[in-house]
Amino acid sequence: MIRIQRIELPRQLAAHAAELTERVTKAGPEERYDIARGLWSHTTHRRRLVTPLRELLGQMAHGNRCCMYCCDDLSTDVDHFEPLAINPLRTFDWLNHLLACTACNSHHKGDRFPLDSLGEPLLIDPTREDPFEHLYLGLANGEYTGLTDKGRTTLEVCGLNRDDLPNARCGARDVVSMCLDTWQRGWEQANEGKMTVAVRTIREQPFADVAQFMLRQAVLPKARTVFAFEVGDETLERLQRPELRAALLA
Which residues form the HNH nuclease domain (predicted)? Predict the structure, then answer.
C-alpha cells in the first residue's frame, strides 16, 4: 500500500452524489441497503456518477490505475471503504471511495470491516494515513509484515501476501534497480533522455509502493540491513543520490 492524495470532487458530481444520498437517508433503516444498492447499480447513475468517480480514482492512483490496496495495476472496481452493506448512507460519499482490483474488492475484503474496541476501523485508508506506519515491506522476499494491529488486520483482510504478489513485488524491486543503472549511465553520459525514461519507468510500473518504500528506507540508519538483497548495495547508493531522489519525488 502507498499514501494516496485525494482530489476534490467536481461540483456537479458532488451535487449528484448528495441528491442520491438524500434519497437513501429518507428511506427507513431496513430499506436503505436495497435502495442504495439499486441506485448504485442503476444504469443512469453508473453513467453519470459511478463511471466519472472511477476515472477520478484512476487519476489519484499511482502508476497505471494501481489498486489502492495491493498496488497491482489496471484496477477497475470502485470499492466502498466502509462497505455499503454496513453503512448504506456512505454509498455515495466520495471520501469512502477507493480504487481496487477485483481480487482485493470482491474476493478478499468484500463486506469485511473490522473495528477496534473504540469502534475505529482496523483497515488502513491510504487516503487518510500513511500505510508505511502500519506495514513493513521485506525487499528480499516481497512480503508485507504488519507493524500494528491495523497493519496486521489490513494484511489479512485484503490478502496482501496472496498468490504471486510477493514475487511481483520482487520483480518491481528488480525493475527499480535496473532503471537506477540506466539513470546512472545517463548521468555519466549527460543523456537527459535516458535519465527521463528511467524515472518514468519507475513511476509508471505496477507496485509503486515498492519504489516508495525503497526511497524512504534508503536514508534511514538501518538502510544497509533493509537492502540486503542481490545488487542491494548499488541500488542503495543510487537511491541516496540527491539528484535522483529529487527526480523520483518530484
Answer: 52-106
